[in-house]
């Protein structure tokens, strides 16, 4: 995820898009065999035999027909999954997406040049905005080098969705609208929207063909802040974006009906480069405890962030930063790559602006004022109430584990990501006395418009290892052997998933064909082990490696009795965010993190003695 930026690039950002291979369809036999292997840790022998018979019938009967239809679909599309995934995973969902779908997280700047400090919010925001605008310009001019895994080119299409992108609510299904264009494609919106105290302001970030400098951006931000100081808060229309999707769609239609000017304001927000939120909160996080700023990023004031926007940059009153982003148009690695770029630029300049202090004459920000009536105010009040009830139920912890990191793990010839995943399996096993069905993100960007595949870390080998670790009589040698088997299985499954040979998206495709054709739902999808093992979005542990950079994110759990677990791996530290619902009597994010710490120490000790 490093940002290779060339002044005179030999490769343009999007130049390989048309030569990427299509997303393959795995073999039916292979997918069903992998599925059976994945459900085994959650089944008694009797349950497993029942499921094995269901899978055999499926493979020899309806599954064969569905698979043929899927192959037919793949012949006419370079990515047979793309449209389905967007609809099924995001756009057709009706629950509130701001907390259940969006990802948020802390900016890493507080670890070096920008520790929490009062009185610098606007100055820092102007510098951070300037670097973000430079990144937009790199994408516009295609000077960001295409990403590669070794020599394999990766799909860059999602980077088109970072700026000028928004989700629009629909009564039964949402849509995504994207206004971004590269320079060669034509003009692109260049205004930003700033939200403060429930009010909206907009200004152009480009003047006479040049991006505004930090002193110029500071002037615009200062004007916004001055307009809001000592004044009553605005109507907080943004809170509507946190509402259940159909309710929000209806409220949005009503807004447009009462005054067509409201439609123009909505379009201004939707097409903006990104939203800047000037927040009065002071989360005061540290490099060891990111919890306050992570919680604020995920669950902060709904009246000063647009939940459907692809990028809300959150600026807090203590000089710290965060982000909150709609997950539908892109996966977290896009934002991680952008935030890491800003982080590296800030580090290189010690967080200062060293250029011209001149402020050119330009129009001041324009306030965007919605026409509202009692019904709109009532809709906003309802949205805020349900948002606060839900966010108060979310437990968020985010800590740095500083005993060791990537360097020590690699020194022992182990894969750092697999190390964390197995430590998490052991932590959950120790805390709950059983295994947790687990989803880990596998990236499929080596294929055209590839996004993700599910990798299931809760393997039979992981189960055997966890069991062995808790056996008082087990020798260190037995524990090591079990650990290495679990490592090898995990690494094999991850490599297969990244190479288009996972099985979860394949099964989803077969399920959706049956659904679209109005066929009776095959037994495979109604079998109890399907959901018990995580199928149909029922994973107890929803996890993702955010990368080996300084950037972290967080998500809510996928199910009520589950956890959201994101982590980043540095040379000498591992930083993890963990979320759980307080109303679930089973879960405790704080306890899971502490159990993770114990597991990490045990595993390193095991790997160290193995080397002696």
TrEMBL record:
Swiss-Prot/TrEMBL GO biological process terms: fatty acid beta-oxidation
GO molecular function term, any single one: carnitine O-octanoyltransferase activity
Catalytic reactions on record: octanoyl-CoA + (R)-carnitine = O-octanoyl-(R)-carnitine + CoA; 4,8-dimethylnonanoyl-CoA + (R)-carnitine = O-4,8-dimethylnonanoyl-(R)-carnitine + CoA
Compartments reported by the entry: Peroxisome
UniProtKB keywords: Acetylation, Acyltransferase, Fatty acid metabolism, Lipid metabolism, Peroxisome, Transferase, Transport
Family: Belongs to the carnitine/choline acetyltransferase family.
Protein name according to UniProt: Peroxisomal carnitine O-octanoyltransferase
Protein species of origin: Oncorhynchus kisutch
């Amino acid at each position: 995820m490093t940002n290779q930026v060339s002044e005179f690039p030999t490769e343009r950002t999007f130049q390989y898009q048309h030569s990427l291979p299509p997303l393959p369809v795995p073999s039916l036999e292979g997918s069903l065999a992998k599925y059976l292997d994945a459900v085994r840790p959650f089944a008694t022998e009797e349950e497993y035999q029942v499921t094995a018979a269901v899978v055999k019938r499926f493979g020899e009967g309806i599954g064969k027909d569905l698979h043929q239809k899927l192959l037919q679909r793949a012949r006419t599309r370079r990515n047979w999954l793309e449209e389905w995934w967007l609809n099924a995973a995001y756009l057709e969902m009706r629950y509130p997406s701001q907390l259940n779908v969006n990802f948020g997280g802390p900016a890493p700047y507080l670890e070096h040049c920008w520790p929490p400090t009062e009185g610098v919010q606007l100055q820092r925001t102007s510098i951070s905005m300037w670097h973000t605008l430079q990144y937009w310009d790199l994408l516009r001019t295609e000077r960001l080098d295409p990403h590669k895994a070794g020599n394999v080119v990766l799909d860059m299409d999602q980077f088109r969705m970072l700026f000028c992108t928004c989700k629009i609510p629909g009564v039964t299904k949402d849509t995504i609208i994207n206004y971004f264009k590269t320079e060669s494609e034509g003009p692109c919106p260049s205004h930003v929207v700033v939200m403060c105290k429930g009010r909206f302001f907009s200004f152009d970030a480009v003047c006479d063909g040049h991006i505004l400098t930090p002193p110029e951006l500071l002037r615009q931000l200062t004007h916004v802040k001055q307009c809001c100081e000592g004044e009553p808060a605005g109507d907080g229309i943004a809170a509507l974006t946190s509402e259940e999707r159909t309710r929000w769609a209806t409220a949005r239609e009503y807004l447009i009906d009462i005054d067509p000017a409201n439609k123009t304001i909505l379009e201004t927000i939707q097409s903006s480069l990104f939203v800047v939120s000037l927040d009065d909160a002071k989360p005061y996080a540290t490099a060891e405890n990111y919890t306050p700023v992570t919680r604020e990023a995920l669950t902060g004031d709904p009246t000063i962030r647009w939940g459907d926007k692809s990028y809300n940059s959150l600026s807090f009153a203590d000089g710290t930063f965060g982000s909150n982003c709609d997950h539908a148009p892109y996966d977290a690695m896009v934002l991680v790559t952008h935030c890491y770029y800003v982080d590296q630029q800030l580090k290189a300049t010690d967080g200062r602006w060293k250029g011209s202090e001149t402020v050119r004459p330009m129009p001041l920000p324009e306030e965007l004022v919605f026409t509202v009536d009692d019904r709109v105010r009532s809709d906003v009040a309802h949205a805020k109430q349900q948002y606060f009830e839900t966010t108060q139920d979310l437990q968020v912890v985010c800590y740095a584990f500083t005993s060791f990191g990537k360097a020590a793990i690699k020194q022992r010839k182990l894969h750092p990501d697999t190390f964390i995943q197995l430590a998490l399996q052991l932590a959950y096993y120790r805390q709950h006395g059983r295994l947790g069905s687990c989803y880990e993100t596998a990236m499929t960007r080596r294929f055209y418009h590839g996004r993700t595949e599910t990798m299931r870390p809760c393997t039979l080998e992981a189960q055997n290892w966890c069991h062995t670790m808790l056996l008082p009589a087990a020798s260190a040698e037995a524990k090591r052997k079990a650990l290495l088997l679990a490592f090898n299985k995990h690494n094999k499954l991850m490599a297969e998933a990244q190479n288009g040979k996972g099985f979860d998206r394949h099964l989803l495709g077969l399920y959706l064909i049956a659904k679209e054709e109005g066929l009776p739902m095959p037994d495979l999808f109604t079998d109890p082990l399907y959901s018990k093992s995580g199928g149909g979005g029922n994973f107890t542990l929803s996890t993702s490696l955010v990368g080996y950079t300084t950037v972290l994110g967080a998500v809510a759990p996928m199910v009520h009795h589950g956890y959201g677990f994101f982590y980043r791996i540095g040379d000498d530290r591992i930083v993890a965010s963990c979320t759980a619902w307080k109303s679930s009597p089973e879960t405790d994010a704080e306890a899971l993190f502490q159990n993770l710490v114990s597991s990490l120490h045990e595993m390193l000790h095991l790997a160290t003695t193995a080397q002696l």
